[in-house]
Amino acid sequence: MKKLLSLILALVMVITLSSCDSFLPLKLDIVLDEVKLRVHFIDVGQGDSILLESKGEFVLVDAGEKEYGETVLDYINRCCADRLKYMVATHPHTDHIGGLRTVLDGIDTESFITVETDQDTSTWKKLLKAVDDNDVNYIDAVPGKSYRFGEAKFTILAPLGDNYEGYNNYSVVMMVQCGDIRFLLTGDAEKESEKEMLGSGMDLSADVLKCGHHGSSTSSTAPFLKAVNPFYAIISCGKDNDYGHPHPGTVKKLTLMGCNILRTDTMGTIVASTDGKHLSFSTERGSTQLPTYGTDTEKKNAGDALNYIGNKNSGVFHYAKCQGVEMMNEKNKVPFDTREEAIKAGYKPCELCNP
Ligand SMILES: [Zn+2]
Ligand SMILES: [Zn+2]
User: What domain range includes position 330?
Assistant: First the structure.
């Protein structure tokens, strides 16, 4: 029966693919009256590629390694895009920008947004040359700037600094908004950039978080996750990748927060659709058809799960939602605002929740 079902599903996909409608979200449009924004987290193995689509206008954020250029271009074409309003290169690592040149050469692109670094690899230089050769408008990413497409917009939040080690923290971080629904796309931004965003006092809350740096432990710090307080987290990474992404600690934190985790390595391409009030997901692989999420769905203070509680008796500190805390005697509980504070007070991190 399951086999038959997947056969039918595959058939429906093929039929939908050949028509010029959006193809992956098979049941979504039944749930949502009107889709105002679709965010496609395209499976490009170990890398990132995200296509934003609103009312016939398209924005591409990264395109995975070079060998995925055709895959991404193909995908864009199948979404019936005749041009890209914006192409964003988050930062000059090949798992993000490798495929962009193929896309640039294959589809009309209005503007190219990136952040200047001292990167001078041939891949990067060739990409910038292609931007030039194709008469694409070059825009330097400046935090605070917003760009509209269809009925949605994105605002650049980071990088806020200009002197980082390595390129990940230079990542262009974007808040994509459509009505009440917000997506936070962080590229490979790591804890330094997260800290700066937190320090700036900007509103980081989002319904969907594309986790920084493929779910690595260098990103998704507890204070950042608390501020974003996402209901869904997307991790874009390759199956059995060499880096061990995502880090179990990241998955643990998101799980403690009650966050729904969606991964491209296990689910393939993930598509989120919204009417500006509700969110619906569909995935290429697996049976994940998450319930439609509305803004009234309870997600208040999920971040509290990541508060720190120490045990006076054992000298161990935990995340508030760790099983270790459930069993703890009330009078032994000591709250801490930060991990550093707990360590300073001589507490050791719990081995189970690894705070
Ligand atoms: Zn990177
Ligand atoms: Zn990366």
Answer: 307-349
